[in-house]
Design goal:
Shape: elongated
Helix content: 55-70%
Structural class: mainly alpha
Strand content: under 5%
Length: 161
């Protein structure tokens, strides 16, 4: 095995990008609204608030369900640590990256609940950045570690959306 493949088997990377992106982009959304206020294009009614709250609740539920599933399989939830097993049940049955999807939903929920359009931009940027900085390295790690089992799982399960 070459040096790159050895590194990929050990762990996906050294920096825990997802929490850093969430904190940074959430803070940037709040700061941007203060510096460059943008009017909320939607309604400010009960139904809209329920939708925003729903996004947030679904996001938190998805993150907690994923954490429980990973714990049950005795593998890490930390994005910069190596997986010890290939998890394909629970929320992983439908998406390969349910925590990151949950985090996008949290940002969208925050957008609706705070009427801050910048959170919508943060959600989009998070989706792109987490794919480049975290998901692609994670996929290399999982393929290097689990080979054909990973490739079969990836072929039948959507990545994020």
């Amino acid at each position: 095995m070459n040096e790159l493949a050895d590194k990929d088997v050990q762990r996906p990377g050294t920096i825990p990008w997802p929490p850093l992106l969430m904190i940074g982009l959430g803070g940037a959304a709040v700061a941007s609204q203060s510096l460059v206020p943008v009017s909320w294009p939607g309604l400010d009614d009960g139904a809209a608030r329920v939708i925003g709250l729903g996004f947030g609740i679904i996001g938190v539920t998805l993150i907690v369900w994923t954490a429980i599933t990973l714990n049950r399989h005795r593998t890490t939830i930390l994005p910069n640590k190596g997986a010890t097993s290939l998890v394909t049940d629970g929320p992983f049955r439908w998406r390969r990256n349910p925590i990151y999807l949950g985090e996008i939903l949290l940002l969208l929920g925050a957008a609706e609940l705070t009427k801050n359009v910048w959170f919508v931009a943060a959600a989009a940027i998070f989706g792109i950045a987490v794919t480049i900085l975290q998901i692609i390295p994670e996929e290399r790690h999982l393929e290097a570690k689990f080979g054909e089992a990973w490739r079969a799982y990836a072929a039948r399960t959507r990545r994020l959306l």
